[in-house]
Amino acid sequence: AQSVSQHNHHVILSEAASLELGCNYSYGGTVNLFWYVQYPGQHLQLLLKYFSGDPLVKGIKGFEAEFIKSKFSFNLRKPSVQWSDTAEYFCATTDSWGKLQFGAGTQVVVTP
Amino acid sequence: KAGVTQTPRYLIKTRGQQVTLSCSPISGHRSVSWYQQTPGQGLQFLFEYFSETQRNKGNFPGRFSGRQFSNSRSEMNVSTLELGDSALYLCASSFELGTGDHEQYFGPGTRLTVT
């Protein structure tokens, strides 16, 4: 079954620093990968998704992710974070039915 | 376009009681999925409904059940509540799952506290 794992559970960084969150997926045929974000007190929002095509995916709020098949990775990046990027970030994949399998999540805290 | 709505937003129940949560998907979406979010277990899939039929089910006991109505609205029921059922219950809607359009839109969740 498809699954994802996230390497970091907590990340603390200063504003303007670069962010990279790791996500590895298990091989299971067709790969559908997502990054979701959950801001404090808000609902889960889709940042970006990869189904096929260009492995460099650009999402909302300046985020991007790169699908590297040889490394089974789908890392999330942002060149310069803001305080408003403080949130929990989830990597996810889906099975053939579309059932989302989430990683454990990474709590990101951006300090002013 | 209105988003996914869930009611109620907050709920406090006692052990042994039952609870029903409601989810209204985005207009035109026919698939509704439910997820449980807890600090210890993270986000876990409960079940998915499409055209009033449960198509997929996660690893939860039979106390957790759901249904979907002809207008795609969905309800989730938990019977004989246990303390461990305290969680944020998220509903997500999608136009269709399993066809390549796997994007799901989440509601704000219902925070259930069992005392």
Helix and strand arrangement:
The complex is a heterodimer of chains A (112) and B (115).
Chain A: E1 4-6, E2 10-14, E3 19-21, E4 23-25, E5 33-38, E6 45-50, E7 56-58, E8 64-68, E9 73-78, E10 87-94, E11 100-102, E12 106-111
Parallel strand pairs in A: 2-12
Antiparallel strand pairs in A: 1-4, 3-9, 5-6, 5-10, 7-8, 8-9, 10-11, 10-12
Chain B: E1 5-7, E2 10-13, E3 19-24, E4 31-38, E5 42-50, E6 53-57, E7 64-68, E8 74-78, E9 87-94, E10 105-106, E11 110-114
Parallel strand pairs in B: 2-11
Antiparallel strand pairs in B: 1-3, 3-8, 4-5, 4-9, 5-6, 7-8, 9-10, 9-11
What does this structure look like?
The complex is a heterodimer of chains A (112) and B (115). Chain A is mainly beta and 112 residues long. Chain A is 0% helix and 51% strand. In chain A, the strands form three sheets. In chain A, strands 2, 5, 6, 10, 11 and 12 form a six-stranded mixed beta sheet that branches. Chain A has a four-stranded antiparallel beta sheet with strand order 3-9-8-7, with no helix packed on it. In chain A, strands 1-4 form a two-stranded antiparallel ribbon. In chain A, a hairpin with a 6-residue loop joins strand 5 and strand 6. Chain A is globular. Chain B is an all-beta fold and 115 residues long. Chain B contains no helices and eleven strands. The radius of gyration of chain B is 13 Å and the shape is globular. Chain B starts with a strand and ends with a strand. At the A-B interface, strand 6 and strand 11 of A face strand 4, strand 5, strand 9 and strand 10 of B.
Quick tags:
heterodimer; A: 112 residues; mainly beta; six-stranded mixed sheet; four-stranded antiparallel sheet; 0% helix; 51% strand; globular; B: 115 residues; seven-stranded mixed sheet; 11 strands; 52% strand
Structure summary:
The complex is a heterodimer of chains A (112) and B (115). Helices cover 0% and strands 51% of the residues of chain A.
